[in-house]
Amino acid sequence: MPGKAGPSGGEAGRRAAGELEAAVLAVLQNAGSPLSAAEVLDRLGGGLAYTTVVTILGRLHGKAVLRRHKDGRSFRYAPADDPAGLAARRLAQMLDAEPDRERVLARFVSGLSGGDEELLRRVLGDGAPGRG
Description:
Layout: H1 17-31, E1 35-36, H2 37-44, H3 50-62, E2 66-71, E3 74-79, H4 83-96, H5 101-110, H6 114-123
Antiparallel strand pairs: 1-3, 2-3
């Protein structure tokens, strides 16, 4: 039957990779200090395999979402930035992938609500953080 778990765990108990990445990132953002893969696994619960958590941590590190440092024979992981910084990185990566930046930005701005457009105008003002 579709949607039911089979004897090996099947689809009902399975999370999409994006959901699992988000869950791992949330654990690390809430931790306050770098965690090992085993510590992330403990905080996630849900019967995941250790190797699955290590794979997700590796993917997130490869996407520059996480920093890692060596701790003995393994690594400890922490978010590379706060949630707003990570969202800004994703937006920049999407923009970098497009050949017509001006058109993409124009379409983006044209779809903003009045409040978001005003907020963007304030952010782009002379006193904006990160603007020289």
